[in-house]
């Protein structure tokens, strides 16, 4: 399973990338709005650090505008993947962009039927937002299970990004269900490696070693 960081913070990306296991990054307008500076420069820097897929989202809501914006964003780096919202206009834009060889990450996916249409439109990635469904008392994990089945049933080349991760349990479930990718907020990413028994065990090993 590939692990992406869900952030636009250069500091966070540099830190996690230094672990040597970061495969990509996803951003969105909310995450970009938290960062100071020119967004194109920020995206270019993220691509340089990660050297893997970096999702950048369009702001336009009509398909013509989405395509223009997407083509402009794609010029930033070969690593840029265009995030397009899952609407009728988004599906139309995705069809056009995928035909032109521009990779799309269809975002704001909340149902199996949306995922089906995104895959048919040629999206390279689809991002079901698990946490936001869970927040409403709906079954986010069930949606991922269903989309995994859909993609396998029809052999779509689309990759599934487990998005809107809230806690380490989501990452565990993503791996067990067979999502291709989990995109994880910085705070949750750091929690993936920690366990109190690891810390205690290491402390004991080191103190025993000193007594030899
Ligand atoms: O990648 C999707 C993600 O940014 C949405 O997460 O936490 O805003 O639901 P959240």
From TrEMBL:
Reactions the enzyme catalyzes: D-sedoheptulose 7-phosphate + D-glyceraldehyde 3-phosphate = D-erythrose 4-phosphate + beta-D-fructose 6-phosphate
Active site: 83
UniProt record, GO biological process: carbohydrate metabolic process; pentose-phosphate shunt
Signal peptide start-end: none
InterPro entries in UniProt: Aldolase_TIM, TAL/FSA, Transaldolase_3B, Transaldolase_3B/F6P_aldolase, Transaldolase_AS, TSA/FSA_arc/bac
A Gene Ontology term for the protein's cellular component: cytoplasm
Pathway: Carbohydrate degradation; pentose phosphate pathway; D-glyceraldehyde 3-phosphate and beta-D-fructose 6-phosphate from D-ribose 5-phosphate and D-xylulose 5-phosphate (non-oxidative stage): step 2/3
Cell location: Cytoplasm
EC number: 2.2.1.2
Keywords associated with the record: Cytoplasm, Pentose shunt, Schiff base, Transferase
Keyword Zinc listed: no
Primary location class: cytoplasm
Molecular function, one GO term: transaldolase activity
One Pfam family linked to the record: TAL_FSA
Role this protein plays: Transaldolase is important for the balance of metabolites in the pentose-phosphate pathway.
Similarity field: Belongs to the transaldolase family. Type 3B subfamily.
Name this protein carries in UniProt: Probable transaldolase
């Amino acid at each position: 399973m590939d692990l992406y960081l869900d952030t636009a913070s250069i500091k966070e990306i540099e830190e996690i990338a230094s672990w040597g296991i970061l495969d990509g990054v996803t951003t969105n307008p909310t995450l970009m709005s938290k960062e100071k500076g020119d967004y194109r420069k920020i995206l270019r820097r993220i691509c340089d650090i990660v050297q893997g897929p970096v999702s950048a989202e369009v702001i336009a809501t009509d398909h013509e505008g989405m395509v223009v914006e997407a083509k402009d964003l794609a010029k930033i780096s070969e690593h840029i993947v265009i995030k397009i919202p899952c609407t009728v206009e988004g599906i139309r834009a995705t069809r056009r962009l995928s035909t032109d060889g521009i990779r799309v990450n269809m975002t704001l996916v909340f149902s199996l039927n949306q995922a089906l249409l995104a895959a048919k439109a040629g999206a390279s990635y689809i991002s079901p937002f698990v946490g936001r469904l869970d927040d409403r008392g709906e079954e986010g994990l069930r949606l991922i299970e269903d989309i995994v089945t859909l993609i396998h049933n029809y052999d779509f080349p689309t990759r599934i990004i487990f998005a809107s991760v809230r806690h380490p349990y989501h990452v565990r479930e993503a791996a067990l269900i067979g999502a291709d990718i989990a995109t994880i907020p910085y705070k949750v990413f750091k929690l993936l490696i920690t366990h109190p028994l690891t810390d205690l065990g290491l402390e004991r090993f080191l103190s025993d070693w000193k007594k030899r």
